[in-house]
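Example (one chain per record):
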Amino acid sequence: MDAISWQLLIEGAWTTLWISAIAIAFGVVAGLLIALVRMLRLPVIDQLLVVYISLARATPLVTLVLFLFLSLPTMGINLDKNVAAIVALTLNTSAFNAEIWRNAFRTFPREQREAAESVGMRRWTYFRYIMLPQMWIESLPALVNEMSFLIKGSPAIAVIGVVDLTRVTNRISSVTYEPLSPILAAGLLYVAIIGCLLKLQGIAERKARRLARQGFSRYAIFRRIILPNIVSSALPLIGNQLIICLKDTAFLSIITVQEITAAANSVQATYFIPFNAFIVAIGLYWAISILLELLIKRLTAWGAKRGMSHA
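Predicted structure:
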């Protein structure tokens, strides 16, 4: 590749980086706010947020981007392609971040709150100076993991004309008829971007590492106590991974595999009904995601029950 191709790739990488960075910043804050509201257990709002989180986690980014960019104009809402990309990425990552923050709230030691209340500390002071810093350290590995997934999923914004790193790669390949070189270069740029996040994740994990447990090396104790607790803790993360894999099947449409998103796009192109087509597609993804979530909850409850019964 020549210097011009590298310049185009770097410009595409910059577009990917700044759009993803804005979505990540909004998503982390929005996820924290959603988790805070959910912890208050407000009757109607809590149910609405549960539906939003379930729906946003189940909807592939490609489908969400197309829905926002093609369907909203039919309702009189016209979004710039960059704005539509940021909104779609933010809506997606906020739902995952909300669950990460909510898990941090639920696992935070109750004794610390009771100690703060016993000395008359205000709730905001306790949250700002005691709770949030510890939650941030504990949640950072999961948050960074979600950030890396968001960046890897950002090529979805190319379907609405955003000239990101993936779209630049396709343009260079179509001009030079040499797809391998630009694809490898783009892969290296993605690796460099995500590598920085993974390095940060490693640092956070080392800081959050607790003292090694002593006296839990026997097989019987591991099988009856430790393993059920590990299963109970890890299954929600495994469930997230399964939902992400389900959503990523939407990318198969770029190689003409007729999955749900490709079918919805074909329907809207044939009958000019983008809103109806993508709503049905989102509903199908949501239904499959709900089935996965129910299965994971059953297995998590089993692990928690086994752990408590042998504690």
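Caption: Residues 210-221 have pLDDT under 50 and may be disordered.
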